[in-house]
Amino acid sequence: MAKQQEEVYFVFMNFDPVYERLRADRSKEGSATLDAYLSHKHDKLLAKLLQLDSYRKRSSLAIVDGFAVEITEDQASVLRSAKEVRVVEKNQELA
User: Its domain of life (predicted)?
Assistant: First the structure.
């Protein structure tokens, strides 16, 4: 059986009151706290749902509480079924 191709997907999270509170703090320290919180939150979700070393998170996106990750379509389906996740979309290259 051939290995599925990994592609970049964007994962957007459901409402999180902690994220909303942290996002309201526009200071430099507040921004750093928000970045650290989201990175940890997104890493924890991936570790809970996907096998270690089977994905590569590219970045967390603080403006929308989401992240970019290189995964297979099957892994995207797993993420779509998580209660914490609002939507998972494959990156669309613009020509």
Answer: Eukaryota
